[in-house]
Amino acid sequence: MNINPHLPSEYINYLENPLEIIDEAEKAAEKDIWSLIQFTENLRCQHGKEPYSMEILLKKLYVRRMAADLGITRIYASGKMVGMETRMSKKVFRLITDSMASDMHRNSLVFEDGLIKAELLLELPRKQLLKWIFQCLAELYASLPALIKY
C-alpha cells in the first residue's frame, strides 16, 4: 500500500537518530512479531506515545509481519475490494476464519484460488484502509492458536 507518512520535524528532532530507529523497526518486523512488539514497547518507554505518522509507519510494519506469518504474499486494494494473495489452503482459511472473534471481518472474507478477498461497503481512504487491513489481519493472526489441539 502506498502510504508514506512523514514524521513531524518536532518528533525527528526529539529522536536521537530517527533513521536508525526506523531501520531498527524494520529489522524487528523482519525477525518476528514479538520483536516488533518489543521494539514498539521500548520506543514508547523511551520516547513516549509516538505521533500519528509514526503509528502509521508501525502499523504498516505490523501488517507486513502478520501477513508474512499468515502466508499472505501480497495485499492490494482496488476500489472497494481488498485482495490478499496467499499460500494457505482453503481448509486452513476456513479453520482460521471459523475461529475469528468478529463477525464483521469473518463475514467480509472470501477465499478463491489462493486469494482472500474482502468486499468493503465503501472505498476507504488509504489510512483507514490500512487500519481495516491491520484489524482484519490481527483477527486472523489471533485465530492461529485455535488450529492447535492440545
UniProtKB/TrEMBL annotation:
The protein's name: ATP-dependent DNA helicase At3g02060, chloroplastic
Domain of life where this protein originates: Eukaryota
InterPro entries: TRCF-like_C_D7
Keywords recorded for this protein, A-Z: ATP-binding, Helicase, Hydrolase, Nucleotide-binding
Annotated GO MF terms: ATP binding; helicase activity; hydrolase activity
Gene3D superfamilies in the cross-refs: Transcription-repair-coupling factor, D7 domain (3.90.1150.50)
Keyword Nucleotide-binding: yes
Keyword Cell membrane: no
